[in-house]
Amino acid sequence: MSNEFRQVNLMIGDVRRRRWTTERKLQIIEE
Fold it and tell me: What is the pTM of this model?
């Protein structure tokens, strides 16, 4: 259970990181 939870948590974290990077890039381009 804990191992599966870690994998899911890592995937969610990766998606959040990608969203943050894309948003930051857009903000930098707009500025």
Answer: 0.40
